[in-house]
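Hallway conversation turned thread

IA: we were arguing at lunch whether anyone had actually written out NADPH:quinone reductase end to end. Turns out nobody had. So, for the record, here is the sequence (338 residues) and right after it the structure tokens. Reply here if something looks off.
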Amino acid sequence: MRAVVYTESGESSVLELVERQSAEPGPGEVRVRIARAGVNPTDWKFRSGKMGELAFPEIVPGQDGAGVVDAVGPDVAHFAVGDRVWTMLAQHTRPGGTAQEQVVLPVENVTPLPDSASFDVGAALGVPAVTAHRALTTSEDGPDRLAPGALAGAIVLVAGGAGAVGNAAIQLASWAGATVISTVSSDEKATLAAAAGAQHTVNYREQDPVEAIRELAPDGVDIVVEVAPAQNLRLDLQVIRPRGTIAIYANNGGDEVTLSVRETFSTNARFQWVLLYTVGGAALRAAAEDITAALADGAFGVGDGHGLPLHHFPLEQTAEAHAAVEEGAVGKVLIDVT
Ligand SMILES: NC(=O)c1ccc[n+]([C@@H]2O[C@H](COP(=O)([O-])OP(=O)(O)OC[C@H]3O[C@@H](n4cnc5c(N)ncnc54)[C@H](OP(=O)(O)O)[C@@H]3O)[C@@H](O)[C@H]2O)c1
């Protein structure tokens, strides 16, 4: 089978297409024939060496994918050959990710994909949608699971709603009944955030975002889903309602923040830090179930109509796919594997 591998960190040119033997699934594992792989910033960050030394001598990149189960290991009760599935965290603690034709994974990393959902959407879920789910389910007064109505009455502010995680946060929050406000840096991105389901968009380059958000939410917002805290925390603290949650999942735009202690504790708000790699199995399973329910409801999609333009690359152009994500492609970068 064909696989894309790297054996040293560096630019996307370290990726090479090779032939490898397919592995057999062991106890508690299935093998998935990958149709589509999703590319996320974490893939190029690990490959580049930004996240430290390589954990394995040879790595197939890719946390996310979608395809069909083609072999089932001993003791696996809930999957059968032919099942359509989506994957998450395929490569976190293992050398083999989704940029290959067949990947063996523990069943915990594999979730049934409803018949109505395409492989494109399946490959776009793992990292972005699970991160968004976590960010939306840790508030003091909010739900710990998402379902229609779970966020009814809540106002969610999504920073950078045209990003992959931002898009997923808008779609999931809208499905759960929240009013969604999204900040964006351009009119094009405003159109995408609105297509994802944001009722209100605020172009922070053209308007004073605090004033605009306060006008839309005079009592403040309940949850902020934050991608760029170094740039936005002051804004977040000025619009969060008492006991609200500011969920921070990235350090885009800077890694250091300075806070006024008094201004911060006066909000009675909480900061929820979010990292998929340490979030724990219970949160991952809850996210997988709720996201799949949103898919089955037809409430989660990809493509222009859902505010997430797709960019397809063939497997042999995985290096170009990584480069596209690294250069900030707007939308979702997918690899057509088989
Ligand atoms: N913690 C986790 O587990 C986790 C999970 C997934 C992703 N992440 C991280 O989250 C970040 C976003 O991932 P993604 O896949 O959503 O990326 P993406 O599709 O490239 O979106 C990033 C968005 O961030 C916004 N942004 C705001 N300030 C920015 C700045 N100073 N520089 C760059 N972008 C800025 C941009 O929107 P505007 O131009 O409208 O501001 C952009 O649309 C990445 O750093 C990724 O590594 C973390």
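OS: looked through it. Residues 134-277 form a domain with the Rossmann fold fold (CATH 3.40.50.720).
IA: good, adding that to the notes. The mean pLDDT is 97.
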